[in-house]
Automatic annotation (TrEMBL):
Keywords: ATP-binding, Exonuclease, Helicase, Hydrolase, Nuclease, Nucleotide-binding. This is 3'-5' exonuclease DinG. It comes from the Bacteria. CDD domains: DEDDh. A motif (DEAH box) lies at residues 464-467. Belongs to the helicase family. DinG subfamily. Type 2 sub-subfamily.
Amino acid sequence: MRKFVIVDLETTGHSPTKGDRIIEVGIVVIQDGKITTDYSTFINPGVEIPPFITNLTGIKQTDLSDAPSFDSVATDIVNLFKDGYVVAHNVPFDLGFLNDQLQEVGYKPLTQPVIDTVELSRILLPIAPGYKLGQLAEYLELQHKNPHRAISDAKVTSKLFSYLLDKLNKLPYETLFQLKQLEPLLKSDLNDIFDDLLEEKSFQSLDRDDIEIYRGIAIKKDKPATNNEQTISVSFGELVDGLYNESGMLAKAMEHYELRSGQKEMSETIFDAFQSRKHALIEAETGTGKSLAYLVPAIYESVSNKKRIVISTHLTQLQAQLFEKEIPLIKKLLPFDFTIELLKGKQHYLSLKRFEKELQSLGQDNYDITLTKAILLIWLTETVTGDVEEIQLPSSGKQFFHRLSAETEGGLDVKSPWFTRSFYQKARTKAQKANIVIVNHALMCADIVSDYQLLPSYQQVIIDEAHHLESTAAKHFGLRLDYVSVQSLLNHVGSLEEGEWLKRIAEKYPKAKQRLENSRWNFIWQESKTDTDELFRYLFAYVMDQQTKDVSVNDVGRYQYSWNQDKEMSTKWSAIKEMVSRLSFNLRDLIHFLSVTKEVVNTTELNEDNDELEEIQTVIDRMQMIIDYLEQLFYQNDDTLIKWIEIEAFGAKNSVYLFCEPIDISKILRTNLFDKKASVILTSATLTMRQSFSFIKERLGLQDANIMERKLQSPYSYDKQVQLMIPNDFPSIQYGNQSDFIQATCEAILSLAEITNGRMLVLFTSYDMLKKSYQLLREIMDEEFIIIGQGISSGSRERLKKNFQAFDRAILLGTSSFWEGVDIPGSNLSCLVIVRLPFQPPDHPIYQGKASQLKENGKNPFMELALPNAVIRFKQGFGRLIRSSTDRGIVFVCDERIVKARYGKYFTESIPDVPITYKSTQKLMQKVERWL
């Protein structure tokens, strides 16, 4: 049996080359599957410990004053590692530090084989929520008594490592064989371990009945979709009475249940809308429990009348919440069975057919792609959905997945051996037999205008987060083109050089090879790449030239330029159109050569299951789409469309994105959705402005005749739980005085933080202002407060939120996506700062296009568009603070327009009634201290 030496170090910082030193060593030795040694010691580093490290580890300077120096324990440490694997949770860090200090005191560096448990966990635990040691310990229920202490971390790492070895041992032979092929490009030295396991399993039959082996890939078996006949013996009235009463089924099923009158009213309203074949607008304020409220009537209606009902959400986050929380609860509560399935776009599902091909080509893989292949191999033994949202892939692994998604396989032939195993096809089959199908807005919009039916037929739909329907529909009915997507396609196709996709096809079909070699493929392919680069570089320069007049900056720092070709500088714009024409011409030539190649492939008996035919057709379709997009963007004059360019001002000189969207989607939605469906229910916490639905009705194309409207109050006592405060002494920002305003904002944040111990979310409307505020706060605040800035601190929105919750004294600065969908319940958040009222910049291309149309129709763009959008956004931000009946907090609005401007009352009259204080910053702080 092998010897594994698990090590964890605590250090004064991240970099030994910058003078950081080891302060604690923890080592656990495993032999014959058992712990034989554990070793722990403090190390006197001879340097000061930073306060951050003391806060993190609990190790103080006094703990180290009598500790040994590293050179006095180096021999003991080296002896422990003798003839063993070095195992650590992030091997490069621990081994790098150890070797640096060993060499410093005259020892040779450790050169044994290594195993990184971060890498191994990413591969073997593909659906884990995260890969930090604490997250994995919680996920696997491993006891972790003293996080960030070396011996405790080493012991937990040893338990994790034993778990991972055990899981490796249970894998099918085929999966282990495929992993062994990938091993040379991994960080961990697993070759000998794989050899042992393969030898052990080589003469054993597969002992897992949940796994199927097909064409050398181990796949988890799925239960076939069932179509149960369900019956209901209770009326809807009896059902909701029994559910929502104080002593009803919900009260019995949930701890700390609170009766919410709005929840029952919402269920009844939706049921009435279904019965009367009407559409409904329902604003359900925070705390109503709307997910449960719409699921109950939807399920009852579907089962009792054998109708399929679609539920559409904006983000996958809500879909996950429905499946993890609401649906399991309803399954316990309802006295009848039902089925709910999730259906997504093809790009979300893994194509087994594509994956098989990619497994066979190892030549040009980088580390991320190798790691992604290893992750997918394990995931296939666990997933029944094949939905990529289940797993966490490395950054370029996400790009790689696009090549493997069901979208790239075109229309999979029913005769293909992969058809019955296709995750996307299985999801469609399940959706056909389900009572409720949950989708997102993008897929629903795609379905309502698609010739090919993407969703099973339905007549009733509930659209949650409906305030996003307009923008999602506009994006879907518009288009987007960028430099990277065009070049990626050309790079994927490649030239007729060794290792390229087209070369591989040409080698397989001699006639195709001959025709391609006689063509000018290589020349035109290279020309297309050059044309693409030149066009996007010229567009970048063109936007930079316009900076003085028509360029805006969006909330993630991109420059935006809205164009109208009748008004562009004729010489330069003509040059752009000439470049577009040249690129389109060359792409048409490439399509011609590919069509000839496809013809040869189609008439060659060698071809068995049309793999190459599908691949070639997919490439042809994507090239044609680029030509069509260029045509629409640069040659079609259409007053109903907004066209704009975005550039990364400080990025690469071809970092350009082209957009086009319809100005008004109300007619499209009315014709394709509201006029065709029997009942469309639109719900959200933010649909009204000053208690009226008129804005949302006009934007979405809803006509009054057939609509039910309900506004459901929150069950929370906002007047007792929230104080709204506005300072009257902030410098005005209207006259370019931004730096003074930012200074005043940061000083207020500091004062509030000292009263609330951090626990503060600060919402910005501008990324530039967020960045400047972050830098200033870092200067004026002591190290007791952790400042987390969106776009500055690394990680996704969810990761930043978790980091915020992990620290006692933290301040989270957010823009754009942080205004909604971020739930931070309880004492984790006691103060919300809204820096500016969330008006869309007047020079934003979409706003400009819509405003121009409103002016032409004799309407006021500010009152009809800017103000309603800002109010709905403000309501979303306001809703971040109170997430339960026990929450209390301050909403501090730095923008006094909410009080002084004529339109300010539109904001205050659109949120729940709360006490409002408009005084000097000093008096506000005194009130905050008293109230909290």
